[in-house]
Amino acid sequence: MIEKVILSIAHSDAYTDYLIMTAGLTNKRIIPIVSPAGEKLKAQMDDTTLVLRCYNSRTEFTPGWDEPVIADTGTGSVRINSRFYLDDDGNVNATNAGIVRETIQRVAANALLTDENIREVFRHYFPLLWSKRQLIYDNPKLFFADSGRYGHSYFEGMPIGVVLKAMEEDPRTFRIRLAGGCGCGADPILVDFDRVYGQFWTLYTWCPACGARKEIRAWNFQRMDRCRKSVDDSMEYYNKGQGLSALSLLDVIDALK
Questions:
Q1: 121 within 8 A of 98, measured Cβ to Cβ
Q2: Stretch 217-226: mean pLDDT, rounded?
Q3: Taking 60 as the threshold, does the pLDDT of residue 10 lie above it?
Q4: Is residue 23 a contact partner of residue 105, using CB atoms and an 8 Å limit?
Q5: 64 CB-near residues (< 8 Å, 6+ apart)
Q6: With contact defined as beta carbons under 8 Å apart, do 5 and 50 qualify?
Q7: Phi and psi (nearest 5°) for 136?
Q8: How far apart are CA 236 and CA 239, in angstroms?
Q9: I need a surface site. Which of 129, 142, 145, 232 has the fewest CB within 10 A?
Q10: Which has more confidence, 149 or 207?
Q11: Alpha-carbon distance 227 to 234, whole Å?
Q12: How is the chain classified by DSSP, letter by letter?
């Protein structure tokens, strides 16, 4: 799970450093640092941090053939060709510089907002979402933020409030006891489920009574259709054509905290 992105900037020229630094201004989860020493970088990192090493390349640039920004989040590298916006005399093409800034910002933000990452964020922060569900129900911006989950009938994401309502109003479907699950005697909530391969599934549960989290392997998870139908029914009831909120799940987490 990724909760923040560090732009580790290899110093080149002052304008390129500034350009990358300002790519993180509108998102507090994007942290730019110029030439960070090992200890400084380590102090900003934890298990949920992605480091993108940004460096300048001043190789010849051919419009239409070369890309001004080449990013690979898998290897954690972002190459910027400063000849796209900065000539050898120090003159800046502001339009092209803006394109580079927006591209870097988009690369970092997209790393946070992949479907897989948002799903992991939902699972991790489900206890917070559940405990604050009334606040979510009362605020349409929170209610209709994308949960990262999908139902049968909708191609866009399911709103957080819709999923929580389904879980709360249909306990026969979303309260589940399985071997290897919670041992306190309460019925854990089925937070999520994911197909591993074939008929093997991983079920993610959380017990509101004791706080236990479990990941349970299951064969032929027959409750899947009921779960998805319950969320679909909730979506049909609460959907008034308003669409998803502009807030991301990470924005909701920040607001609830």
A1: no
A2: 85
A3: yes
A4: yes
A5: none
A6: yes
A7: -65, -45
A8: 5
A9: 232
A10: 207
A11: 11
A12: ---EEEEEEPP--HHHHHHHHGGGTT-TTEEEEES--HHHHHHH--TTEEEEEEEEE-S---TTTS-SEEEETTTTEEEEEGGGTB-TT--B-HHHHHHHHHHHHHHHHHHHS-HHHHHHHHHHTHHHHHHTHHHHHH-HHHHTSEEEE--SS-SSPEEHHHHHHHHHH-HHHHB---TTS--SSS--EEEEEEEEETTEEEEEEE-TTT--EEEEEEES-TTHHHHHHHHHHHHHHH--S----S--HHHHHHHH-
Query: What pLDDT shows up at residue 150?
Result: 62
Pick the range with the lowest mean pLDDT from 7-21, 117-131, 146-160, 200-214. Answer: 146-160
Sequence-distant (6+) residues with CB within 8 A of 195 are 201
Residue 152 is predicted with a pLDDT of 47
| 144 close to 161: Cβ distance less than 8 angstroms | yes
The maximal CA–CA distance of the chain, rounded, in angstroms, is 73
Q: Distance (Å, rounded) from C-alpha 135 to C-alpha 145?
A: 13
- In 3D space, the residue among 65, 39, 41 whose CA is nearest the CA of residue 54 turns out to be 41
Residue type, 74: G
pLDDT for the residue numbered 156 = 63
CA 144 – CA 9 distance, rounded (Å): 36
For tokens 């591993």, name the residue. 196
